[in-house]
Design goal:
Two copies of one chain form a homodimer. Chain A folds into two domains: 12-253, TIM Barrel, CATH 3.20.20.20; 261-351, Sulfite Reductase Hemoprotein, domain 1. Chain A has twelve helices and 15 strands. Chain A has helices at 38-51, 63-75, 88-96, 112-125, 140-146, 150-166, 181-194, 209-225, 240-253, 275-285, 305-308, 340-351, and strands spanning 12-14, 17-19, 26-30, 55-59, 80-83, 101-103, 129-134, 172-177, 200-201, 231-233, 261-264, 295-299, 314-318, 322-327, 330-336. The two termini of chain A are 29 Å apart. Chains A and B meet through α7, α8, α9, β11 and α10 of A and α7, α8, α9, β11 and α10 of B.
C-alpha cells in the first residue's frame, strides 16, 4: 500500500502546536459565538477541545473582543488565533493580550509603518501570521488581469508573502480558500508549487452539514492525497464541533491520524436486520472510544459478514433475530439481536486496556 | 482552471447508458428491498429514478428473484443489473428474463462449460459483465502470496478478465472495492494502469449517512480528480436514494455534472441570523430545482455577503431582522428576514425559464 508522500514544508510553531515540516496535520475550527460573549466563547472552546480541536480561531472586530482575549487564553488549553481584518491596532492589542496566532493580510493593513509595527510585535512575541486569501475578496486589479482564477489567488497570496519576507518575517502559513472546488484545488496546487510555507487548507461557503462535509471531504481529501496541506479547517454551516468531527474522519480515512473507524455494509436484498439503526447505535455507543485506533464492523449478513470484515478488530453481524459477535474474522459468540451492541461493547472493554 | 483529464477507456453499452470512452460518469445504486418483493422493488426503482439514479442493481439469489425480473424490467426506465454469486443457471435465467447487465465473477462460476454458456448468452444478448473484486472476499491463494494488498486485488481482477478475454468477450467493466481507503485507492490506480476497460468505482462498508458520505466523497473524489472512473456507486448504510443524492453532489463538485449548487458561509462571530436553519430552508425549498445548473448562496453577513458570493447566480444575505436578495453580486432588494426564502424562490422563478 503506498503511503501519502507529504510535501516538505517549513515548520512553524503556533503556541504548543507544530505546523509543517512533517508535523501531523492539525485540526482547526472557529468560534461561532461572538468572541466578546466570554462565557459562551469559553463553553464553545471547551466543547471544541473535547471534540479534538487543536487550534481555535475567533473574529476580533473591536475593543470588546480584545478585552475577552485574556479570559479566553486563561480558559483554553489549545492555541488561539485572532482573525483581524485591516485594523493594525487590534492586531497589536491582540498580541499584547497574549494571542498565539494572527490571521491578517499584511497587504490590507495600510501604511508601511503600520505593517512594520504589527510584524515587529508578532516577531517579538513569536507569533505566526496566516495569510488568508479568499476568492470572494480578491483585489480588483488582480481580478481585472487574471479574472477569478488560480493565478489571481496565487498572485494575491504572494503579494502578502513578499511584504512579510521584506521584513524578514517567516513564521508564515497561507490559505487560498474558495467555494468553487476546482478553483480551490488549482489555487492550492499552484501555491504548493510556488512556496514551501506550511499551508492551511479549507473550502469556504461549503454548505450544510451533509453537503458541506461532502465538499470538504473531497477538497481536503484530494489535496492531502497529493501531499498538500499542513493544517486544516472544515468549514460548515453547523456547530463548529461538527467541523472537528468531520475533519478527524477525513484524516483517519487517509491514515494521517489514528482513531476509531466504524465500517458498515450497504444494505442489499440479503440484509435481514435493521442495519441503519444498528450502525447508528454502534456509532453512538462507541463515541467515548473515538481516539482508539480500532476498526469496528457492523454487517448485515451473518453468512458473509465476519469474512468480509475480517480486517476489522471487532464486529457484529445480524441475522434473523440473532447476531454474531466477531473479532478479526473469528466468531466469538452468537447472541440475540437485541444484545448485539451491549455484547460488542462488553467485548471491546474486556480486550482493550483502558477501553 | 485546469479541468480533469479523464483516462481514455473503452466504451460499453448497458441498456441505453454508455459507460467509458468519454461518456459522462453514470450513477448507480442497489435495491435494499428484496428483489422478489416486486411491489416494494418497483416502488424503490421509481424513487431511485426520480432522484437521478441511472443504473439499478439488485441481488438475484433464487428462482423468485428471477421471476421478478420481467415485472421490474416493465416498470423500470433505467437499465437493470442482476448481482449473482457463483450460480450460472441464475445468470442464464436473468439473461433470458431480459436483464441489461450482469455482475458476476467468471472465475467463481465453476466449470469451463458453465462459464462458456454464460458468456455466450451475455454476448448474444449484448449484455455487459461487471467483474467485482472485493477486498473481503479475495481468493485465499492470492492473500497467501500478496496479503490483502492492491497487488492481490489487481491480480484477482485480471484472473477474471483473462477468462472473458479468452472467450473473446470484451463488454467488461471492473470494480476493486475495499472499505480501507488507501487500499481502495491503490487498487483502482493499479487497475487503471493495467487495463483500459471502464471502471466502476465504489468503497464498501463505508458507514452511516454522514461518515459514509465523507469516506465515499474522499475515495471517489480522489480517483475522479485523477481521471479514474466511468461509473460509480456510493454505498451507504442508508436509503439508496441518499446514495444517489450524495453521488450527484460528488460529481457536481468536480464539475463532472451540472446542477444546483447551494453554498453557505460558515458561521463566525459576525453572523447575526440563524444561518443553519436558513441554509437548510433554502436547500429544502430548492429541491425541485436540483438539476438546474445554478449556484445559490446563503450568506450570514449583509455587508460582505453579496461581494463574497458574487460568483453565485442568486443569493441571500442576512442582517438584523432584515436581509438582502442578490443576483451575481448585485443587490436586487432588501426584505424582512422572514421573507428571504420566499423572495429568493420568486426571483429564481421569475428569471429562470421553466424554473
Amino acid at each position: 500500500m503506498e503511503n501519502i508522500k507529504r510535501k516538505a514544508t517549513r515548520q512553524i510553531r503556533l503556541g504548543k502546536v507544530l505546523i509543517g515540516g512533517g508535523a501531523p496535520v492539525s485540526i482547526q475550527s472557529m468560534l461561532s459565538v461572538p468572541t466578546r460573549a466570554v462565557d459562551a466563547a469559553l463553553a464553545q472552546i471547551g466543547a471544541l477541545e473535547r471534540s479534538g480541536c487543536q487550534i481555535i480561531r475567533f473574529a476580533v472586530t473591536g475593543e470588546e473582543d480584545i478585552r475577552a482575549i485574556k479570559s479566553l487564553k486563561k480558559g483554553a488549553a489549545v492555541p488561539l488565533i485572532a482573525d483581524i481584518h485591516f485594523d493594525h491596532k487590534l492586531a497589536l492589542q491582540a498580541l499584547e493580550a497574549g494571542i498565539d496566532g494572527l490571521r491578517i493580510n499584511p497587504g490590507n493593513i495600510g501604511s508601511r509603518a503600520k505593517v512594520e509595527a504589527v510584524v515587529k510585535a508578532a516577531s517579538e512575541s513569536g507569533v505566526p501570521i496566516r495569510i488568508g486569501v479568499n476568492s470572494g475578496s480578491l483585489p480588483k486589479e488582480l481580478v481585472a488581469t487574471h479574472s477569478v482564477s488560480a493565478q489571481a489567488m496565487l498572485e494575491a497570496a504572494l503579494q502578502h508573502v513578499r511584504i512579510l519576507e521584506d521584513l524578514n518575517f517567516d513564521a508564515i502559513k497561507i490559505s487560498v480558500k474558495a467555494s468553487h472546488l476546482p478553483l480551490m484545488l488549482a489555487s492550492y496546487r499552484a501555491l504548493s508549487d510556488a512556496v514551501d510555507y506550511p499551508l492551511h487548507l479549507g473550502i469556504t461557503e461549503s454548505g450544510t452539514l451533509l453537503a458541506g462535509s461532502i465538499k470538504s471531504a473531497m477538497a481536503l481529501g484530494i489535496l492531502l492525497s497529493e501531499g498538500i496541506g499542513d493544517t486544516l479547517r472544515v468549514s460548515l454551516t453547523a456547530d463548529p464541533v461538527q467541523e472537528v468531527l468531520v475533519a478527524k474522519q477525513i484524516l483517519r480515512n487517509l491514515e494521517l491520524r489514528k482513531g476509531l473507524n466504524i465500517i458498515s455494509c450497504p444494505t442489499c436484498g440479503r440484509t435481514r436486520v435493521d442495519l441503519f439503526s444498528l450502525a447508528t447505535e454502534v456509532e453512538n455507543a462507541l463515541q467515548d472510544y473515538s481516539d482508539l485506533p480500532l476498526t469496528v464492523a457492523v454487517m448485515g449478513c451473518a453468512v458473509n459478514g465476519p469474512g468480509e470484515a475480517r480486517e476489522a478488530d471487532f464486529g457484529i453481524a445480524g441475522g434473523d433475530g440473532e447476531g454474531l459477535i466477531f473479532a478479526r474474522g473469528e466468531i466469538v459468540k452468537k447472541v440475540p439481536e437485541k444484545q448485539l451492541v451491549a455484547e460488542l461493547l462488553r467485548l471491546i472493554k474486556e480486550r482493550i486496556p483502558g477501553g
